[in-house]
């Protein structure tokens, strides 16, 4: 018998998330690093180990200061720039490759920065799910949590960052695999901590701060094949249908029905990769009694038919 899973565990289990730690930056001011829009399915991230940085991205507003212990990730792969804030043109950085990691260094003599840079990689359609339900930019601060539940996660995250820092300092056998495994764990812990923040941005993570909505969220992730109705979900939360609709729109920016469809399509896409699973069985498993209704929903959500998705996943399949 499998133990019950919380919604975040179910979300992560739906996806194939790989972590890839690429560069450790060691700079003295003045310095600057710029990133173009990432490839589809790639989520760039940065971890400030020591020092400070100014983050500039396309979102309106002033640059955001990052400090030691801060983690920033870009679920939409948006272009961005990090710099020291001095306004002085930096000298070019040079790179050197170690056994497991690339190091980027400069000749600046000002305030020092130590930073890890990498990316999380998600296979489609899970990259789309993340874009739909996470903000364009997510900043988590491990050193600014005050409540006990948050400080526990903060301690875990700080421990993970310490492991990443230590592993990137040495050229151990298997170090590359270790850094990438730690990087993948960083994805889940960062989402967990962001969900616990009082400043969780609009999207799926914002629902966690509203425990009255938890029964609806848990129900949809735990049993997506059920034909959930809004009155039924509202009843689980002991609120009216109108209140449920309003909370989802305010906190997620999408309806509960949209979320349920997204969960179903992500699961269906996973199952369609299995050649021995029939489309009819998959349709029923994700809550569609009619194959035509499933094909219609899948095509609208994925911009291709289930058969086209299966062939794309297995190019040699006729």
Largest sheet features: 7 strands, mixed
* Content-based structural category: alpha+beta
Write down the oligomeric state: single chain
Provide the β-strand percentage band.
15-25%
Low-confidence segments:
145-150
Q: What is the terminal-to-terminal distance?
A: 38 Å
Return Rg in Å: 22 Å
Q: Would you report the number of β strands?
A: 11
Q: How many helical elements? A: 11
Helix content: 40-55%
Q: What does the average pLDDT come to?
A: 87
**What is the spatial order of strands in the main beta sheet?**
8-9-1-10-3-6-11
Task: Please describe what this structure looks like.
The strands form two sheets. A seven-stranded mixed β-sheet has the order 8-9-1-10-3-6-11. Strands 2-7-4-5 form a four-stranded antiparallel β-sheet, with no helix packed on it. The chain is built from eleven helices and eleven strands. The two termini are 38 Å apart. The chain has helices spanning 7-14, 126-133, 148-169, 175-196, 214-222, 230-236, 241-251, 256-272, 279-285, 291-302, 306-313, and strands spanning 17-28, 32-35, 42-50, 52-56, 64-67, 70-73, 80-83, 94-97, 102-105, 112-122, 138-141. α3 packs antiparallel against α4 (175-196), α6 packs across α7 and α8 (256-272) crosses α10. 41% of the residues lie in helices and 20% in strands. It is an alpha+beta fold and 318 residues long.
């Amino acid at each position: 018998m499998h133990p019950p899973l919380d919604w975040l565990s179910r979300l992560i289990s739906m996806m194939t998330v790989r972590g890839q730690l690429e560069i450790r930056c060691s700079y003295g001011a003045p310095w600057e690093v710029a990133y173009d829009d990432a490839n589809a399915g790639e989520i760039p991230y940065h971890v400030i180990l020591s020092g400070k940085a100014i983050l500039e991205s396309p979102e309106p507003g002033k640059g955001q200061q990052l400090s030691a212990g801060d983690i920033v990730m870009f679920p939409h792969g948006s272009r961005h720039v990090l710099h020291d804030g001095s306004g002085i043109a930096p000298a070019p950085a040079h790179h050197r490759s170690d056994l497991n990691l690339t190091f980027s260094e400069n000749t600046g003599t000002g305030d020092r920065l130590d930073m890890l840079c990498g990316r999380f990689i998600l296979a489609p359609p899970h990259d789309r799910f993340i874009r739909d339900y996470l903000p364009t930019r997510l900043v988590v601060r491990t050193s600014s949590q005050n409540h006990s539940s948050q400080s526990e996660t903060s301690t875990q995250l700080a421990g993970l960052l310490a492991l990443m820092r230590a592993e990137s300092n040495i050229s151990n056998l298997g170090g590359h695999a270790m850094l990438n495994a730690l990087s993948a764990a960083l994805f889940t812990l960062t989402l967990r901590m962001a969900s616990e923040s009082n400043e969780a941005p609009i999207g799926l993570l914002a629902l966690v701060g509203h425990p009255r909505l938890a029964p609806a969220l848990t129900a949809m992730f735990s049993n997506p094949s059920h034909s959930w109705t809004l009155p039924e979900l509202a009843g689980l939360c002991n609120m009216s249908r109108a209140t449920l609709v309003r909370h989802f729109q305010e906190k997620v920016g999408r309806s509960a029905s949209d979320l349920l469809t997204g969960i179903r399509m992500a699961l269906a896409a996973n199952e369609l990769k299995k050649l021995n699973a029939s489309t009819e069985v998959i349709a029923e498993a994700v809550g569609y009694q009619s194959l035509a209704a499933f094909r219609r929903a899948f095509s609208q959500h994925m911009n291709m038919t289930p058969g086209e998705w299966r062939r794309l996943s297995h190019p040699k399949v006729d």
